[in-house]
User: What shape does this take?
Amino acid sequence: MYRLWGKIMIDNQFRSDYVFELENGDIASPSSLKKGLEFLTLHFDIEMPMWLSDNEKDYARFRKTRFYNDHFIETIDFDYFEIEVIEDKKKKRDHHR
Assistant: This one.
């Protein structure tokens, strides 16, 4: 299962958050990320942000990334939009054995 947590943040507080779940999704799959990002932007009624090199680095290293005003064509009314992969703790423990 692939779960992507989307958060709209203002003054380091949640304005809104939602978890996208994809039953047959793979954490390493670009298509799972794309589906999750598309769903979350529709859910929050925001435009699709531009995926820049800083997003690539953060997502690859931490499985999360933030989108600020410069990631959007239109001006945003929040500080940033963050996405974060939620890993299944059981699978994570099994992986380290």
